[in-house]
Specification:
Two copies of one chain form a homodimer.
Chain A (H helix, E strand, L loop, with lengths): L1 H4 L1 H10 L7 H13 L1 H18 L1 E2 L6 E2 L5 H4 L4 E8 L2 H9 L5 E5 L17 H8 L6 E4 L5 H13 L6 E4 L15 H9 L5
Parallel strand pairs in A: 3-4, 3-5, 5-6
Antiparallel strand pairs in A: 1-2
Helix pairs in contact in A: 2-3
Bound molecules: zinc ion (ZN) (2 copies).
Keywords (chains A, B): DNA damage, DNA recombination, DNA repair, Metal-binding, Zinc, Zinc-finger
Protein name (chains A, B): Recombination protein RecR
Function (chains A, B): May play a role in DNA repair. It seems to be involved in an RecBC-independent recombinational process of DNA repair. It may act with RecF and RecO.
Chain lengths: 200, 200
């Protein structure tokens, strides 16, 4: 294809292929689509990326990504200063916001501890979290981490570090996903859902 | 998410979601990935798109997409002027080039006839193809169109129009895909593969 379409298009395809969710084949389709929808899609997308490059920053308080710093959540006076929701990634923060799951503020760790992948405490924003937890306004740290080995390892590690802070440390409930079918769930989830059952 | 991440990021997500292969969820992941890989990916991709916007054109001869016009294939002196391979879309041209399937030149129709979708002959570059077929250097028109109802309707329509031109009109063979398993193939393919069997 390089010889046919020229190195400029080949480069566009190769860069698109590095987006999560796009393989080499779909990157070619995406490049063609962009070229065909030149005015309607490629020009606006190039300009949206330029705007993002110019404006988007990492919040120095919580690690969220936003066009203002501190971010919209950190500066929102209606948010509850008493609660910090700890997430591994900005994607998790976005997911919780879409679900309207909390009125608290956030802390983005950047990753979970993963000894196998060489991710240690120094790679996460754990020191900053511990400092925030010692703010007298903060009463609860909610660990909204994946229910995976790495997520739970991280949760335990953080819980230990927060012993001295005057905060309650909580984590998300285990249970049946909304719309989930019982006979597809693993036994750990089912027994946790049974233990944590609520009044109907 | 709009309220959390700001309208600039929301717009980036919405534009990415219009790429084939990316839904709303993967568009969010792609946007986050771009923001995190600011220097390594978002800057080069924005600039590759700007280069494509500045340089990429539709070949006025064959409909291929390239940074030169006429395109690399049309201007390549080593290509065979006697053969024009007719494809519906530039993606098909790229696929044939990757396969090194032909030394001929191309003609991109832009679509296939599709009465149900309101795509008629006037929406395709058929007039230009007929004109090219009357060039005395051209001896064969290979219809490399999808083996679908619309593809075959288009093939028949073009074949009729080329009655007066002094060219042989051919189409791709039907058969067993390389690596394909017989018991997954439909009966039409199997009987065509049998009829068009070749010496071992
Ligand atoms: Zn923030
Ligand atoms: Zn051309």
């Amino acid at each position: 294809m390089g010889a046919v379409a020229g190195p400029e298009i080949e480069r566009l395809v190769q860069l698109l292929a590095r987006l999560p969710g796009l393989g080499p084949r779909s990157a070619r389709r995406a490049a063609l689509h962009l070229i065909k929808k030149r005015e309607a899609l490629m020009m606006p997308l190039a300009s949206a990326m330029q705007v993002a490059l110019d404006k988007v920053q990492v919040c120095k308080t919580c690690g969220n990504i936003d066009t203002q710093n501190p971010c919209t959540v950190c500066t929102d006076p209606k948010r509850d200063d008493a609660i910090i929701v700890v997430v591994a990634d900005v994607a998790d923060l976005w997911a919780l916001e879409r679900a309207n799951a909390t009125q608290g503020r956030y802390h983005v760790l950047g990753a979970t501890l993963s000894p196998l992948d060489g991710v240690g405490p120094q790679d996460l924003t754990i020191d900053a979290l511990v400092a925030r937890a010692h703010d007298s306004r903060v009463h609860e740290i909610i660990l909204a981490l994946n229910a995976t080995v790495d997520g739970q390892t991280t949760a335990h590690y953080i819980t230990d570090l927060l012993q001295d802070a005057n905060v309650k440390v909580t984590r998300l409930a285990h249970g049946v996903p909304v719309g989930g079918e019982l006979d597809y769930l693993d036994e750990g989830t089912l027994s946790a859902a049974m233990r944590q059952r609520t009044l109907f």
